[in-house]
Specification:
Helix content: 55-70%
Strand order of the largest sheet: 3-2-1-4-5
CATH superfamily: 5'-nuclease
Number of helices: 8
Low-confidence stretches: none
Distance between the termini: 12 Å
Strand content: 5-15%
Radius of gyration: 14 Å
Number of strands: 5
CATH architecture: 3-Layer(aba) Sandwich
Mean pLDDT: 96
Number of domains: 1
Structural class: alpha/beta
């Protein structure tokens, strides 16, 4: 099973956990990372993840994401096809970096695309192509347990 975690998902374990939802999503992401490390799941990374993470002004968050991204066994580089698809997604109302993440996940034939961003989640569910399922961290854990 191939999983793409967008930047907000990668950062969720470092967010303030005073809200129940954030705490549950953080635990879900940490569990997913554990499954990647044991080889149960395959993590897909991309130039979009590396680029966005490199712009993160917080060294601890940047390092954490860098370490998770390093566990990915498959990486999608920027390409004409990814950029063209990202432009289509952007015209459909998805932000530029989010479009690049979704296009990269499609190009990498991810089974699941995971995001914590509710607005992006709704749009991505409408626009995603192929057999990829767009999910929240909690929904992804439910899918994995099936």
């Amino acid at each position: 099973m191939i999983v793409y975690l967008d930047t907000c998902s990668l950062q969720r374990p470092l967010d303030d956990k005073t809200q129940l939802r954030l705490r549950m999503e953080a635990e879900a992401i940490l569990s997913i990372i554990d499954l990647v490390e044991t080889g149960t799941l395959t993590l897909l990374s991309s130039d979009a993840l590396a680029y966005e993470n490199g712009r993160n002004p917080h060294p601890t968050r940047r390092q954490f994401a860098r370490e998770v991204i390093a566990t990915a066994s498959k990486h999608i580089a920027f390409s004409d096809a990814v950029e063209k698809r990202a432009e289509e997604l952007n015209r459909a109302g998805i932000k530029t970096l989010d479009s690049l993440h979704l296009a990269s996940a499609e190009a990498g034939r991810a089974d699941f695309f995971c995001t914590c961003d509710d607005s992006f989640l709704a749009k991505a569910k409408q626009e995603a192509r192929g057999y990829m399922t767009v999910v929240s961290p909690l929904a992804l854990v439910e899918e994995i347990e099936k």
